[in-house]
Amino acid sequence: MGRGRSGTRWPDPVPSLSRVPEPAAASLVPMSTWLRPVLVVLGVIGLAVAGRWFGADQFLEVEAARRLIESHDRLGPVIFVGICVGGMLINVPESLLLAAGGALFGMGPGLLYGWVASILGTTATFLIVRHGFGAEGRAALVRRFGVLGRLDQQLVRHGFRTILLLRTILFVAPPLNWGMGATSVPLRSYVAGTALGVLPGLVVVTMLGREIALAGETGDWTRPALLIPGAVFALMLVGSALVARRAFRRS
Q: Domain limits at 151?
Protein backbone atom coordinates (compact mmCIF):
# COMPACT_ATOMS: atom_id res chain seq x y z
CA MET A 1 0.00 0.00 0.00
CA GLY A 2 1.22 3.53 -0.80
CA ARG A 3 0.61 6.64 1.30
CA GLY A 4 -0.24 10.13 -0.02
CA ARG A 5 0.75 13.47 1.52
CA SER A 6 -2.43 13.61 3.58
CA GLY A 7 -1.80 10.17 4.99
CA THR A 8 -4.39 8.49 2.76
CA ARG A 9 -3.39 4.93 1.89
CA TRP A 10 -3.63 4.05 -1.77
CA PRO A 11 -3.67 0.50 -3.18
CA ASP A 12 -0.54 -0.61 -5.01
CA PRO A 13 -0.76 -0.96 -8.83
CA VAL A 14 -1.90 -4.30 -10.19
CA PRO A 15 1.26 -6.32 -10.93
CA SER A 16 2.00 -7.23 -14.53
CA LEU A 17 2.24 -10.80 -15.70
CA SER A 18 6.02 -10.64 -15.69
CA ARG A 19 5.82 -10.60 -11.87
CA VAL A 20 3.61 -13.67 -11.52
CA PRO A 21 5.75 -16.23 -9.65
CA GLU A 22 6.63 -19.51 -11.29
CA PRO A 23 5.06 -22.66 -9.82
CA ALA A 24 7.24 -24.30 -7.20
CA ALA A 25 7.25 -27.56 -9.10
CA ALA A 26 5.75 -28.86 -12.29
CA SER A 27 3.83 -31.50 -10.32
CA LEU A 28 1.94 -28.75 -8.51
CA VAL A 29 0.60 -27.21 -11.72
CA PRO A 30 -3.08 -28.12 -12.20
CA MET A 31 -3.95 -29.91 -15.40
CA SER A 32 -6.25 -27.05 -16.43
CA THR A 33 -3.28 -24.68 -16.40
CA TRP A 34 -1.50 -26.39 -19.28
CA LEU A 35 -4.36 -28.29 -20.92
CA ARG A 36 -6.17 -25.19 -22.15
CA PRO A 37 -3.10 -23.67 -23.87
CA VAL A 38 -2.31 -27.04 -25.47
CA LEU A 39 -5.86 -27.28 -26.84
CA VAL A 40 -5.66 -23.72 -28.18
CA VAL A 41 -2.36 -24.41 -29.93
CA LEU A 42 -3.70 -27.66 -31.39
CA GLY A 43 -6.82 -25.84 -32.55
CA VAL A 44 -4.82 -23.16 -34.35
CA ILE A 45 -2.58 -25.79 -35.94
CA GLY A 46 -5.70 -27.67 -37.00
CA LEU A 47 -7.11 -24.55 -38.66
CA ALA A 48 -3.82 -23.96 -40.48
CA VAL A 49 -3.69 -27.55 -41.75
CA ALA A 50 -7.34 -27.43 -42.81
CA GLY A 51 -6.78 -24.13 -44.58
CA ARG A 52 -3.84 -25.54 -46.53
CA TRP A 53 -5.74 -28.75 -47.26
CA PHE A 54 -8.71 -26.88 -48.72
CA GLY A 55 -6.47 -24.52 -50.67
CA ALA A 56 -6.99 -21.30 -48.73
CA ASP A 57 -3.73 -19.94 -50.14
CA GLN A 58 -5.29 -19.91 -53.62
CA PHE A 59 -6.90 -16.62 -52.67
CA LEU A 60 -3.45 -15.03 -52.78
CA GLU A 61 -4.03 -15.17 -56.54
CA VAL A 62 -6.04 -12.08 -57.42
CA GLU A 63 -8.04 -13.75 -60.19
CA ALA A 64 -9.17 -16.61 -57.95
CA ALA A 65 -10.23 -14.14 -55.26
CA ARG A 66 -11.93 -11.95 -57.87
CA ARG A 67 -14.00 -14.86 -59.18
CA LEU A 68 -15.13 -15.78 -55.68
CA ILE A 69 -16.03 -12.21 -54.75
CA GLU A 70 -17.81 -11.42 -58.02
CA SER A 71 -19.85 -14.61 -57.73
CA HIS A 72 -21.36 -13.31 -54.49
CA ASP A 73 -22.08 -9.77 -55.70
CA ARG A 74 -22.91 -7.54 -52.70
CA LEU A 75 -21.35 -9.91 -50.19
CA GLY A 76 -17.97 -9.48 -51.88
CA PRO A 77 -16.53 -7.07 -49.28
CA VAL A 78 -17.71 -9.31 -46.43
CA ILE A 79 -16.08 -12.34 -48.05
CA PHE A 80 -12.84 -10.41 -48.56
CA VAL A 81 -12.77 -9.35 -44.90
CA GLY A 82 -13.49 -12.94 -43.87
CA ILE A 83 -10.65 -14.27 -46.02
CA CYS A 84 -8.22 -11.76 -44.51
CA VAL A 85 -9.27 -12.56 -40.94
CA GLY A 86 -9.05 -16.28 -41.64
CA GLY A 87 -5.61 -15.78 -43.17
CA MET A 88 -4.37 -14.15 -39.98
CA LEU A 89 -5.55 -17.17 -38.01
CA ILE A 90 -3.92 -19.78 -40.25
CA ASN A 91 -0.72 -17.87 -41.02
CA VAL A 92 -1.35 -17.05 -44.69
CA PRO A 93 0.80 -13.98 -45.55
CA GLU A 94 -1.37 -11.17 -44.21
CA SER A 95 0.25 -8.34 -46.17
CA LEU A 96 -0.40 -10.10 -49.48
CA LEU A 97 -4.05 -10.67 -48.60
CA LEU A 98 -4.50 -7.02 -47.66
CA ALA A 99 -2.71 -5.90 -50.83
CA ALA A 100 -5.24 -7.88 -52.82
CA GLY A 101 -7.89 -5.43 -51.59
CA GLY A 102 -6.35 -2.68 -53.70
CA ALA A 103 -6.37 -4.92 -56.76
CA LEU A 104 -9.95 -6.08 -56.21
CA PHE A 105 -11.72 -2.93 -55.04
CA GLY A 106 -9.44 0.02 -55.79
CA MET A 107 -7.63 2.30 -53.38
CA GLY A 108 -10.47 3.74 -51.28
CA PRO A 109 -12.70 0.71 -50.73
CA GLY A 110 -9.70 -1.63 -50.57
CA LEU A 111 -8.17 0.50 -47.82
CA LEU A 112 -11.41 0.56 -45.84
CA TYR A 113 -12.05 -3.19 -46.10
CA GLY A 114 -8.43 -3.96 -45.31
CA TRP A 115 -8.56 -1.71 -42.25
CA VAL A 116 -11.66 -3.48 -40.93
CA ALA A 117 -10.06 -6.88 -41.60
CA SER A 118 -6.84 -5.83 -39.85
CA ILE A 119 -8.68 -4.78 -36.70
CA LEU A 120 -10.87 -7.89 -36.60
CA GLY A 121 -8.06 -10.32 -37.38
CA THR A 122 -5.53 -8.90 -34.93
CA THR A 123 -8.18 -8.67 -32.22
CA ALA A 124 -9.17 -12.30 -32.81
CA THR A 125 -5.60 -13.53 -32.34
CA PHE A 126 -5.22 -11.34 -29.25
CA LEU A 127 -8.39 -12.74 -27.64
CA ILE A 128 -7.46 -16.34 -28.46
CA VAL A 129 -4.22 -16.00 -26.52
CA ARG A 130 -5.66 -13.78 -23.76
CA HIS A 131 -8.56 -16.08 -22.91
CA GLY A 132 -7.27 -19.38 -24.27
CA PHE A 133 -4.05 -19.53 -22.27
CA GLY A 134 -5.28 -18.16 -18.94
CA ALA A 135 -3.22 -16.09 -16.49
CA GLU A 136 -0.71 -18.82 -15.65
CA GLY A 137 -0.17 -19.78 -19.28
CA ARG A 138 0.33 -16.18 -20.33
CA ALA A 139 2.73 -15.58 -17.44
CA ALA A 140 4.74 -18.60 -18.58
CA LEU A 141 4.98 -17.14 -22.09
CA VAL A 142 6.12 -13.78 -20.73
CA ARG A 143 8.82 -15.51 -18.69
CA ARG A 144 9.87 -17.70 -21.60
CA PHE A 145 10.27 -14.90 -24.12
CA GLY A 146 12.34 -12.07 -22.72
CA VAL A 147 11.07 -9.57 -25.27
CA LEU A 148 7.52 -10.02 -23.94
CA GLY A 149 8.72 -9.57 -20.37
CA ARG A 150 10.48 -6.32 -21.26
CA LEU A 151 7.45 -5.04 -23.16
CA ASP A 152 4.99 -6.06 -20.46
CA GLN A 153 5.98 -3.31 -18.01
CA GLN A 154 5.92 -0.71 -20.79
CA LEU A 155 2.52 -1.90 -21.99
CA VAL A 156 1.01 -1.60 -18.52
CA ARG A 157 2.08 2.05 -18.26
CA HIS A 158 1.80 3.19 -21.89
CA GLY A 159 -0.28 0.57 -23.69
CA PHE A 160 -1.75 2.66 -26.48
CA ARG A 161 1.47 4.49 -27.29
CA THR A 162 3.54 1.29 -27.32
CA ILE A 163 1.10 -0.63 -29.52
CA LEU A 164 0.85 2.34 -31.89
CA LEU A 165 4.64 2.37 -32.32
CA LEU A 166 4.91 -1.40 -32.70
CA ARG A 167 2.14 -1.53 -35.30
CA THR A 168 3.66 1.34 -37.27
CA ILE A 169 6.96 -0.56 -37.48
CA LEU A 170 5.82 -4.19 -37.63
CA PHE A 171 2.38 -3.74 -39.26
CA VAL A 172 0.44 -7.04 -38.98
CA ALA A 173 3.42 -9.29 -38.25
CA PRO A 174 2.23 -12.61 -36.74
CA PRO A 175 4.53 -12.45 -33.66
CA LEU A 176 2.90 -9.14 -32.76
CA ASN A 177 -0.62 -10.38 -33.48
CA TRP A 178 -0.26 -13.39 -31.21
CA GLY A 179 2.33 -12.21 -28.70
CA MET A 180 0.47 -9.17 -27.39
CA GLY A 181 -2.33 -11.37 -26.08
CA ALA A 182 0.14 -12.81 -23.57
CA THR A 183 0.99 -9.41 -22.10
CA SER A 184 -0.94 -7.20 -19.67
CA VAL A 185 -1.90 -4.56 -22.24
CA PRO A 186 -5.61 -3.64 -21.94
CA LEU A 187 -7.78 -4.73 -24.85
CA ARG A 188 -8.96 -1.15 -25.43
CA SER A 189 -5.39 0.15 -25.75
CA TYR A 190 -4.47 -2.74 -28.04
CA VAL A 191 -7.39 -2.20 -30.42
CA ALA A 192 -7.00 1.60 -30.51
CA GLY A 193 -3.24 1.43 -31.05
CA THR A 194 -3.69 -1.19 -33.75
CA ALA A 195 -6.43 0.75 -35.54
CA LEU A 196 -4.17 3.78 -35.95
CA GLY A 197 -0.82 1.99 -36.19
CA VAL A 198 -1.72 -0.22 -39.18
CA LEU A 199 -2.81 2.72 -41.35
CA PRO A 200 0.60 3.68 -42.81
CA GLY A 201 1.44 0.11 -43.77
CA LEU A 202 -2.07 -0.50 -45.03
CA VAL A 203 -1.92 2.52 -47.33
CA VAL A 204 1.34 1.19 -48.79
CA VAL A 205 0.19 -2.40 -49.39
CA THR A 206 -3.21 -1.34 -50.77
CA MET A 207 -1.57 1.09 -53.19
CA LEU A 208 0.93 -1.59 -54.16
CA GLY A 209 -1.85 -4.08 -54.85
CA ARG A 210 -3.74 -1.60 -56.99
CA GLU A 211 -0.65 -0.63 -58.97
CA ILE A 212 0.35 -4.26 -59.57
CA ALA A 213 -3.12 -4.93 -60.96
CA LEU A 214 -2.88 -1.88 -63.24
CA ALA A 215 0.60 -2.87 -64.38
CA GLY A 216 -0.68 -6.32 -65.24
CA GLU A 217 -3.35 -4.78 -67.43
CA THR A 218 -1.11 -2.21 -69.16
CA GLY A 219 2.18 -4.12 -69.18
CA ASP A 220 4.02 -1.10 -67.76
CA TRP A 221 6.03 -2.37 -64.77
CA THR A 222 8.29 0.67 -64.48
CA ARG A 223 5.74 3.27 -63.44
CA PRO A 224 6.82 5.39 -60.45
CA ALA A 225 3.38 4.79 -58.94
CA LEU A 226 4.32 1.10 -58.74
CA LEU A 227 8.01 1.37 -57.89
CA ILE A 228 7.59 3.81 -55.00
CA PRO A 229 5.14 1.76 -52.88
CA GLY A 230 7.10 -1.37 -53.85
CA ALA A 231 10.29 0.16 -52.47
CA VAL A 232 8.54 1.34 -49.30
CA PHE A 233 7.06 -2.13 -48.76
CA ALA A 234 10.51 -3.69 -49.17
CA LEU A 235 11.88 -1.29 -46.56
CA MET A 236 9.03 -2.24 -44.23
CA LEU A 237 9.93 -5.91 -44.55
CA VAL A 238 13.62 -5.25 -43.93
CA GLY A 239 12.87 -2.98 -40.96
CA SER A 240 10.49 -5.53 -39.42
CA ALA A 241 13.05 -8.30 -39.84
CA LEU A 242 15.80 -6.22 -38.20
CA VAL A 243 13.58 -5.24 -35.27
CA ALA A 244 12.45 -8.84 -34.74
CA ARG A 245 16.00 -10.16 -34.96
CA ARG A 246 17.28 -7.67 -32.43
CA ALA A 247 14.39 -8.30 -30.06
CA PHE A 248 14.73 -12.09 -30.06
CA ARG A 249 18.51 -11.93 -29.79
CA ARG A 250 18.00 -10.25 -26.45
CA SER A 251 15.41 -12.81 -25.34
A: 32-249
